[in-house]
Design goal:
Elements lengths: L2 E8 L6 H14 L3 E6 L13 H11 L6 E3 L2 H5 L5 H11 L3 E8 H4 L8 H4 L4 E5 L8 H6 L2 H4 E2 L2 H4 L7 E4 L8 H9 L10 H10 L10
Parallel strand pairs: 1-2, 1-4, 2-3, 4-5, 5-7, 6-7
Helix pairs in contact: 2-11
Length: 217
């Protein structure tokens, strides 16, 4: 069996418990040997991060310190230009040719996939693990564009029967926490003990991050 490598991207501005739950859900459900958390440097479809890349990387390192299945991958930060998922996955595939890649994302992001840069090429590079609530569904437009009926599988075993191009949807992931919500709480000096790792909270206070009113990302 080839090594199973998960990739979870995002701004991580800041990394919160929802990100960590998503990562651990993927690791456990898919029996991944490793999952890379890949912070975006310059996003293609949204405004820039509130915190500098160095802070976002540091907070990620603190948040995953106790879980050796997770690692922070600065590949997009080091690229110093607009981040495109297809380029990141191609680089990871070249660096790990014997690994099977699984891209982890939420349903909202998955529904925008037909608008992504060179999205057709993604299916030759990875599988998709989509985190969704039981009351949510893939849009008709996305399902048709992606030929979801042909690509969708119902188990992790079926996902890895192919090298790439399949989609597994987890329909019981209920953490809807967003970084914009967390930033808003921080800007209001509200209690965030239930949403952030204590080490991340300490880092934010130490460096006085998110003290200004949060931008709506």
């Amino acid at each position: 069996m080839s090594t199973r490598l998960g990739i979870l991207g995002g701004m991580f501005d800041p990394v919160h418990n929802g990100h960590l739950e998503a990562a651990r859900c993927a690791v456990q459900t898919l029996d991944l040997q490793r999952l890379h958390l890949v912070p975006c440097h310059i996003p293609n479809h949204r405004v820039a991060a509130s915190s500098e890349a160095s802070h976002r990387l540091a907070m990620l390192e603190l948040a995953i310190a106790a879980d050796d299945r997770l690692c922070v991958d600065p590949i997009e930060i080091e690229r110093q230009r607009v981040s495109y998922t297809v380029e990141t996955l191609a680089a990871l595939k070249a660096a790990h040719p014997d690994h099977t890649l699984v891209f982890v994302l939420g349903l909202d992001a998955f529904n925008t996939l037909p608008a992504w840069h060179r999205w057709h090429d993604l299916f030759g590079l990875c599988h998709f693990f989509v985190l969704a609530r039981s009351d949510a569904s893939v849009s008709e437009h996305t399902a048709g564009a992606l030929e979801l009926e042909r690509r969708r599988v119902r188990s992790a075993q079926a996902l890895f029967d192919a090298e790439s191009g399949r989609v597994l949807i987890a329909e019981d992931f209920h953490n809807a926490l967003s970084s914009s919500q967390v930033r808003r709480l921080l800007s209001q000096n509200a209690d965030v003990s239930g949403t952030l790792d204590p080490r991340v909270i300490a880092y934010i206070h130490q460096h006085r991050l998110y003290s200004e009113p949060a931008r709506a990302l």
